[in-house]
């Protein structure tokens, strides 16, 4: 009788949880409103987060090096906002090109539906990508030769060399990782240049961020191992396996922490310190669930510390996160983006 009662209570709890999960999907916009947003979401706004974070880190590092670190700066520099907007436009163009090149693996990995499932034709998507990158380059050229050169280097490396033949560095174990690290370097320098004149200090203060950025970039190859293997893509995780990938990522993030301490940079050391328990758990639970948790929360912690400097950035993050969430729920019944990663 007691067992039956416990079972009944357990079933009620499970039903309640199921109802709560269904509630996540109740708020949906009509398809006639959502569908035109496809042309916005081929830019992959959920990937804007890391672009903004590493660029703002460079912007912050300039002031920390040349004047002092300022916490809770509530004023808005609209010139810098516009610069970030055009940088975002250019980065979105590279994300579109990446989707065009990854149609097969995106179908296998069941993600990025807009181009892979022909909601937007690849030819149209390519035109949008080229226009967005071209507009950003023109604006940067008008503003500053150094910014134009940095953006051009970013687009050539992350847009062309990373995706297209004869290079296709994204499908090579080490070149894929190094290209992402190099892109992080260029974005950091762009952020520094938004704040002031580039100098050699930038190349010193970027080092811990590159190790941390590389750690995340390396781990992002793990969830896509199945689809990449099916399409003969030799990414780092495919070649070396999840164990080696996790260990290398962990060593890199510890290195970032140590160098950040030496440089006395709290913007990188504090988030890593909070993230280290996730890496520790990951060393004992080497599965995709804990890889995703480590990636998402590590980026979140770094974003929050940058928000302590620039609180307006939190509003930008919030708007982007929930706009994307409403779109994906309404368009594809998909709870994304999310911090929730469930055990299978």
Describe the structure.
It is a single chain. By secondary structure, the protein is mostly helical. The chain has one domain. The protein has 17 helices and no strands. It has helices at about 1-25, 30-35, 40, 50-65, 80-100, 105-110, 115, 120-145, 145-160, 175-195, 200-205, 205-220, 225-230, 235-260, 265-285, 290-310, 310-330. The model has no long low-confidence stretch (mean pLDDT about 90).
Mean of residue pLDDT values: 90
Structural domain tally: 1
Largest sheet: none
Cα(first) to Cα(last) distance is 31 Å
Report the structural category.
Answer: mainly alpha
- Low-pLDDT parts are none
- Considering DSSP H and I runs of 4 or more, what fraction of the residues is helical? over 70%
User: How many DSSP-defined strands?
Assistant: 0
The value of Rg in angstroms is 21 Å
Shape: globular
Number of helices: 17
Order of helices and strands: HHHHHHHHHHHHHHHHH
SS strand fraction: under 5%
Summarize the structure.
By secondary structure, the protein is mainly alpha-helical. The protein contains 17 helices and no strands.
List keywords for this structure.
344 residues; 76% helix; mainly alpha; globular
């Amino acid at each position: 009788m007691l067992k039956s009662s416990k079972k009944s209570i357990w079933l009620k709890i499970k039903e309640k949880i199921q109802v709560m999960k269904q509630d996540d999907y109740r708020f949906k916009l009509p398809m006639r409103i959502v569908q035109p947003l496809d042309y916005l979401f081929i830019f992959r706004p959920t990937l804007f987060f890391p672009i903004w974070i590493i660029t703002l880190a460079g912007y912050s590092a300039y002031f920390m090096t040349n004047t002092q670190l300022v916490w809770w700066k509530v004023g808005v520099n609209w010139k810098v906002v516009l610069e970030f907007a055009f940088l975002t436009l250019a980065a979105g163009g590279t994300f579109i090109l990446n989707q065009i090149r990854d149609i097969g693996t995106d179908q296998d990995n069941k993600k990025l539906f807009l181009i892979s499932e022909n909601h937007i034709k690849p030819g149209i998507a390519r035109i949008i990508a080229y226009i967005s990158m071209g507009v950003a380059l023109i604006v940067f050229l008008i503003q500053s030769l150094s910014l134009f050169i940095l953006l051009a280097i970013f687009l050539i490396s992350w847009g062309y060399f990373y995706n297209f033949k004869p290079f296709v560095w994204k499908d090579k174990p080490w070149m894929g990782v190094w290209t992402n690290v190099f892109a992080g370097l260029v974005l950091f320098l762009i952020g520094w240049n938004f704040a002031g004149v580039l100098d050699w200090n930038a190349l010193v203060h970027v080092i811990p961020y590159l190790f941390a950025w590389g750690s995340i970039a390396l781990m992002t190859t793990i969830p896509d191992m199945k689809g990449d293997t099916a399409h003969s893509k030799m990414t780092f995780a495919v070649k070396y396996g999840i164990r080696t990938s996790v260990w290398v990522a962990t060593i890199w993030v510890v290195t970032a922490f140590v160098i950040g301490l030496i440089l006395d940079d709290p913007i990188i050391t504090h988030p890593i310190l909070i993230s280290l328990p996730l890496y520790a758990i990951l060393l004992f639970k080497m599965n995709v669930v804990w890889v995703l948790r480590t990636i998402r929360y590590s980026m979140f912690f770094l974003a929050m510390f940058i928000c302590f400097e620039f609180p307006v950035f939190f509003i930008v993050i919030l708007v982007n996160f929930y706009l994307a969430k409403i779109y994906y729920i309404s368009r594809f019944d998909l709870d994304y983006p999310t911090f929730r990663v469930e055990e299978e």
